[in-house]
Amino acid sequence: MASRTYNVGIIGYGMSAKVFHIPLIVGVPQLKLYAIVQRTPKPNDDPEKDHPGVKVYRSVEEMVKDKAVDIVLVLTTPETHFQLAKLALQSGKNVVVEKPFTPTSKEAYELIAIAKEERRLLTVYQNRRWDSDFLTFSQLMKNDKLGRIVEFETHFDRHRPELTSTGWKTKPLPGGGVVYDLGAHLIDQVVVAFGMPKRITGFVGSQREQKYNPDGFEDSCTVLLHYDGMLATVKAGVVSLEAAQLRYWVRGTNGTYKKFHMDGQEDELKAGRKPGDARFGVEPAEKHGILTVMENGSPSMKACPTVEPLTYASFYQQLAKALAGEGDVPVKPEGSAAVIRLIELARQSSAGGRTLDV
Question: What is the pLDDT of residues 46-80, one digit of tens each?
Fold first, then answer.
């Protein structure tokens, strides 16, 4: 019997849809790009021209009434995620929400309850679980190459001391700021690897001068996640003048893993490449990390090849299986709700200048 095809409806036709979702969806045979909501198309920004044959709706309300839509992707700004996901779920649709899940954990847990009540699937696009460097670290930990880990640093630093963009990501909106944007990825990776911490200390604010950030947009964060016998550090800053930015620094009793450079899948997608293209996401040798271990009583450094990634397409491949009743959603919403709770606590910790219990 031929497998069923599931119709995908997208809310929001910005960069997220065009770069991070549509190229992945069209590569999964069980998924069909069926409909897109765009309220005001422009001559050079029109889904009807970009994707002939796809239904285009001018309102979300219209699209969720379409009984042919099986799953709705909420790819809008964070402050809209809750209401749009709620509407889609209560209209009988399965839902994918772009990260950050919601501005508040209360909203996240409410969506989870609605999904259960409606018997619909709900998941969050935490695509950096499929970063090649995170998969490399996970493999090192699984194979006990590092021993007992005592410190884990994960970075997403850039050198952008002057704010040049004027988009929504630079505005102090609910669910906005770097701790929600990049921190949601980094904290999620920590929780996937180590579970929930015992305590949290947050430093959330702006590294830019006020003249470049008059609205007080939170452009940087350092979050310390305290575990029994281990400290995880999450950092995302905009003043980091480096030839190569640090990505991971993991120290254990048997080894240290140090990695520079970001996973390359985002840049490749922006350049128009996609999963399935030759060597998509495969990192060149000069960007591999370094593993330091003891050999003959002395520290020995050696290249640690980055694994070939499963690629971000894995998210939609697993989602297609979940829709067919063949396993779980790729990202359980409870995990993403927990990340939002940690972000809330990090901001509370920063505002109060104290470490908080989780």
Answer: 898 999 999 999 999 999 999 999 999 999 999 99
For residues 270-307, one letter each, b for 16 or more C-beta atoms within 10 angstroms of the residue's C-beta and e for the rest, the string is eeebbbeeeebbebeeebbbebbbeeeeeeeeeebebb
Three-state secondary-structure class, residue 97: strand
Closest CA to 162 of 228, 214, 212, 100: 212
Q: Which residues pair with 357 in a beta bridge?
A: 199
**Residue 277 has what DSSP assignment?**
B
Task: State phi, psi for 3 to the nearest 5 degrees.
Answer: -70, 150
Whole-angstrom Cα Rg for the chain: 21
Distance (Å, rounded) from C-alpha 56 to C-alpha 46? Answer: 9
Q: Give me the phi and psi of 43, to 5 degrees please.
A: -55, -35
Residue 289's DSSP bridge partners are 304
Strand, helix or coil for residue 20? helix
Token pair recorded at residue 186: 């980094």
The predicted-structure confidence for 89-115, as pLDDT tens digits, reads as follows 999 999 999 999 999 999 999 999 999
**Distance (Å, whole) CA 292 – CA 287:** 16
